[in-house]
Specification:
Length: 206
């Protein structure tokens, strides 16, 4: 059926974009999770008396990827003469992680106004750690809603598979007649709308 072929082609065309967005989202979440401990370590190295370049070198070497690789790039730019806040701003623009925007603003303020950078990094690390804990609590409280979204998406497919086994003649009309194609398209649209609405309800920004 032309409708089934069109839906299959559309899904195959959208799959790479969806996979890239999923991998990018996981990459950003890993950087966000690594950032509080990295800032605390950075503050500890500065408090121990190390200069900025050696502290950044140890910080980049001790952090696993992806944050370790990104900090290595920031360190390379810093050694080439780029100011630290500008290099961190480039990392912020490249990664689109909101927490790095706060860090870049902090470094710019410290460069212009001075102050105790180690203490400021400690405070930022504590704030980010508390926010991660709050986000984890929100995810645990909204887990039931996310499970309902999965059920909304999977249950009609399971029901269709069962009916194909129990009533193959009736389900055959779904893929061979225009009315069946329209019904399948309507079910697909309703499934996508229900899944999107549930995700919008349970997706709470902190």
């Amino acid at each position: 059926p032309w409708l089934l072929c069109g839906l299959s082609a559309l899904s195959m065309a959208m799959a790479p974009r969806f996979i890239v967005r999923l991998l990018r989202h996981r990459w950003r979440r890993r950087i966000t999770a690594q950032l509080p401990d990295a800032l605390a370590l950075w503050a500890g190295l500065l408090r121990a008396g190390q200069a900025m370049a050696p502290a950044l070198t140890q910080l980049a070497s001790r952090q696993p990827d992806p944050l370790g690789a990104e900090l290595g790039l920031v360190l390379s730019q810093y050694r080439l003469g780029v100011s630290l806040d500008v290099a961190m701003g480039r990392l912020r623009d490249r990664s689109a992680v909101p927490d790095l925007r706060i860090l870049a603003t902090l470094l710019r303020a410290q460069r212009d106004l001075g102050g105790n950078l180690a203490e400021a990094l400690d405070r930022l690390a504590a704030m980010l750690r508390n926010r991660l804990a709050l986000e984890a609590r929100i995810r645990s409280l909204t887990a039931q809603g996310r499970l309902q979204g999965v059920v909304v998406g999977v249950l009609p497919l399971l029901l269709a598979a069962v009916l194909c086994v129990m009533e193959p003649a009736a389900m055959g009309a779904m893929v061979t007649t225009p009315i069946g194609w329209a019904a399948m398209a309507l079910v697909l649209v309703l499934e996508i709308a229900g899944f999107a609405m549930i995700r919008r309800i349970v997706n709470i920004d902190v």
